[in-house]
Design a protein that fits this description.
Radius of gyration: 16 Å
Order of helices and strands: EHEHEHEHHHHEHEHH
Helix content: 40-55%
Largest sheet: 6 strands, parallel
Strand order of the largest sheet: 2-1-3-4-5-6
Length: 231
């Protein structure tokens, strides 16, 4: 029997970022995806839990903001999440990061979405990846398909509840932490902290990727998910 796997995109992303793994794992999983809405972490967790398409038990794959939501969901409701994949995520906040996020929030609340996203998008990807330009265009198209109000809400949620390190020891399911080697936002140390703080976590690095691993390296992402969900 196939297991249900919920895929959660990162900030200003859509389910289209998961097209490759979903298309190539159909023999193994029943895939669903949700765009996160809500101005708090709890609101996003509730959105997952109240989805009427999910069974009582499901696995979860989250990227960046989706990783943050996924970790919280698994920690707060361990009876529902059977397996967890956290890609290019984080657990800790710090003063410099908080200040930068507050500045971005002010810009979004002032209606400067195009400026924020145009600056944000190229920094997601590894510049030496052969598909860098196409990756940037792909993500910009995803971002432009979302309402500006939803994008602002997502950032508001992350500013409010950014630090989740207190939840990590509550995660009971097998967990895979995936880190893009050249991630400029959440470095190796942050992802190792994430993995080492979760009781049943494995850790791996994907080469030739930065913060957009599922888009930059869809085949490697799919291979890792196949190994993880196939066991």
């Amino acid at each position: 029997m196939k297991q249900t796997v919920l895929f959660i995109p990162g900030f200003a992303g859509t389910p289209a970022m998961w097209d490759y793994p979903i298309a190539n794992l159909g023999d193994l999983i029943d895939a669903q995806s949700l765009v996160m809405a809500g101005d708090s972490l709890q609101a996003m967790v509730d959105l997952v839990l109240n989805s009427n398409t999910l069974p009582d038990k499901f696995a979860l794959v989250g990227h960046s903001m989706g990783s943050w939501v996924g970790a919280a969901t698994a920690a707060l409701h361990p009876e529902r999440v059977t397996k967890l994949v956290l890609m290019d995520g984080w657990a800790r906040n710090n003063a410099a990061k908080a200040e930068e996020m507050e500045a971005t929030l002010k810009a979004l609340e002032a209606g400067q979405h195009q400026q924020v996203l145009a600056q944000h998008c190229p920094s997601v990807f590894y510049a030496n990846n052969a598909n860098f330009s196409n990756n940037v265009k792909f993500l910009r198209n995803l971002q432009e398909s979302l309402p500006e109000s939803l994008i602002t809400q997502q950032w508001q949620a992350m500013v409010k509840d950014n630090d989740i390190r207190h939840l990590l020891t509550k995660i009971e399911c097998p967990t895979l932490v995936i880190h893009g080697r050249h991630d400029p936002w959440f470095d190796l140390d942050e992802n190792l902290f994430l993995a080492q703080s979760i009781p049943y976590a494995q850790f791996t690095i994907v080469e030739d990727a930065a913060h957009g691993t599922p888009i930059e390296q869809p085949q490697a992402t799919t291979a890792l998910l196949r190994l993880f969900f196939g066991n």
